[in-house]
Amino acid sequence: MKQYDVIVIGSGMSGMTVANKCASKGLKVAVTDELPYGGTCALRGCDPKKIIIGATEVRDFAQRLVGKGINTVPQVEWKDIMAFKQEFVDAMPEKIEKGYKHNGIDTYHGAARFIGNDSVQIESEVLKGSKIVIATGARPRQLKFEGGAHALTSTDFLNLKEFPKSIIFIGGGYIAFEFAHIAKRCGAEVTNIHRGPRPLENFDKDIVHHLSEATRKLGVKLVLETNVTRIKKDTIGYTVIGETNGSETEFTAEAVFNSAGRVPHIDGLNLKAASVNYNKKGVEVNEYLQSTSNPSIYAAGDAADTAGLPLTPVAVYEGHVIASNILKGNNKKPEYPPMPSVVFTLPSMASVGLTEVEAEKAGLNIKVNTKAVPEWFNAKRLNVQEYAYKTIIDTDKGTLVGAHLIGPGVEETINFFSLAMYKAISVRDLKKMIYAYPTMGSDITSML
After folding, report:
1. What global pTM score does this model have?
2. Three-class secondary structure of residue 256 per DSSP
């Protein structure tokens, strides 16, 4: 049995942060992961997805400017995108492991399983830790209906060698929408099936309506209020059976993808052996991100039930909090700043703070500014039809409490709003600022 000050299970962004920070202060640290080092964002999520979107952005931009200076729309070459993406993905695990070794961290490659309150087993190795950090991230939600195993995952989509001519995405969240936009621009016939009355339920409903319309205009078949009950494999692909108001409908495609959300990847850890309480949102933690039932264990990122959104920057932040609490004793509580979230479709949709419904439920006195603005210069020069905003202002304090945008560049513009909310900059002062023009940021004053 090997003894460590800290054992980190998972080598995504939160786990990496804890391991390196603790090791830099002289603690004996071990890290393990059953998958290549780097985590979902770097290897199977945000980064490779954004690289692929880059190629579709070029096609989208050219298509919008046909007849306005552009006469050729480029085709997306999937194999070339995959090769370019893989350059980034392949380099990451080795780079991370090299960094661990430089910092004196012992590295393991295997699934960890608790065998006691302070002990884990990794294959034939048993490790004992004064502190153990669970940072295993999330995995795709299992489809439990008949034939659910036929559906591929988001990881499979990002590693497709041959691109299907037709695709069905099951789910109505950001993964389903982002991948549907990619797939359609790469030439596939695309269907999204969602069981609820509206997709992207955690985002402002009015801005989501704009994205839904843009998605339909793109040519994606958006099927709502339809519960998938089974998937059948046939000679040319798959048949997905959905139920709508008691009636069955069949949809066929060459490939089916499970985009029905993600859940904490903790089911294989044998948490009961370590007396760790957990629920469907992850490991239950206190205000110091410490297990509520085992003080030797901490949890961060998508594996933990915290107030943080399931976003990479939030996981990094929680990693810093845990490292501080391990090094100095419980002294730091997460104080989450405004957390912007983006759906990387084309057009992008971005959100930070409260939705209109949430602000009303909170009892705030609010002013809501909302408008579709395809006539604004920034929309016209890019020839886009989908440009809209909703800003929510606390009239008692004169500050922003929410901002929700759709259109070109909003994944960048939303950061202005996040900063304004974090520093409680008054709307009056935001309007007095001078912004570079013509830029997307220069539209901010008109949104207030």
Report:
1. 0.95
2. strand
Residue 263, H or E segment: strand 262-264
Sheet holding 221-223, edge to edge: 221-223, 189-193, 166-170, 255-258
Sequence-ordered alpha helix ranges (H) in 301-409: 312-328, 356-361, 377-382
Amino acid at residue number 39: G
How far is it, in rounded angstroms, from Cα 43 to Cα 48? 7
- What is the dihedral angle through the alpha carbons of 17, 19, 22, 27, rounded to the nearest 10 degrees? -170
How much is the pLDDT for 380?
97
Residue 331's CB is within 10 A of a number of other CB atoms, namely 10
Q: What is the largest CA-CA distance in the chain?
A: 70
161 to 139, 156, 218, 239: CA distances (angstroms)? 22, 9, 24, 22
Distance of alpha carbon 93 from alpha carbon 37, whole angstroms: 5
What does DSSP assign to residue 273? Answer: G
* Per-residue pLDDT at 236: 87
Those residues whose C-beta lies under 8 Å from the C-beta of residue 411, and which sit 6 or more positions away, are 342, 344, 348, 350
Q: Name the nearest CA neighbour of 20 among 112, 139, 135.
A: 135
- Average pLDDT (182-203) is 96
With b for 16 or more beta-carbon neighbours within 10 A and e for fewer, the 57-84 pattern comes to: bebbbeebeeeeeeeeeeebebeebbee
Q: In what helix (H) or strand (E) does residue 119 lie, and over which residues does it extend?
A: strand 119-122
